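Throughout this chapter, every protein is written as a compact record of paired, labelled lines. An example of such a record is reproduced below:
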Amino acid sequence: MAHKPRIVLLGKQGAGKGTQAKLLSRHYDIAHLSTGDLFRAQALAGTAFGLEAKRFMDGGDLVPDEIVMGVIEECLAPGGPLADGFILDGFPRNQLQAEQLEQVLTDRPIDVVVHLDVPREIVVERLSARRVCENNGAHIYSVNKPPSRGWICDECGGNVVQRDDDTPEAVNKRLDLYDTQTSPLIAFYNAKGLLAVVNGVGHPDHVLERLVSAIDVARSRR
């Protein structure tokens, strides 16, 4: 039986990677790792590592490579949560991380790297309008789709707020960092024949259809 897919999902912040990664995780029955969610969970737990990561994210900065790689290597260890198929959302962020990931996955190489392509002006609008539950960052709302009871989370009753890194200033700073550090990964993976570019604009179900088609075509060629 063919192995489950091993996917890297690239795209600007606000391109919809988190939403699509969750949908792809269910579609292929594979583990989903979002480094951003992991860092925020650790920050809520009050760990030194999580608080350090949060400090970078709140300022609109990328978390340093040494912090990210420690988490990823732990998750990719034999018998870990990503042992049998996975989708990496938000990692790698630069070529150094990509090269280190290749070393970690020597016996289980990536099947396909998908670039979810969304114009900058759209992601700035999306992120500036986003609101999240302060008890659980996975419960996401928008100024256009607020909770049913004021700014109180429908799921757990927590306050729904704007994240510090979702202000227009912080969003643009993160996008500038993406352009300089992460965009070169597109050429890096394209040269290896692993890249698939998918239009990320439109209804999530339509975007998911495009992603599944691109992933299945890429896997059939390997």
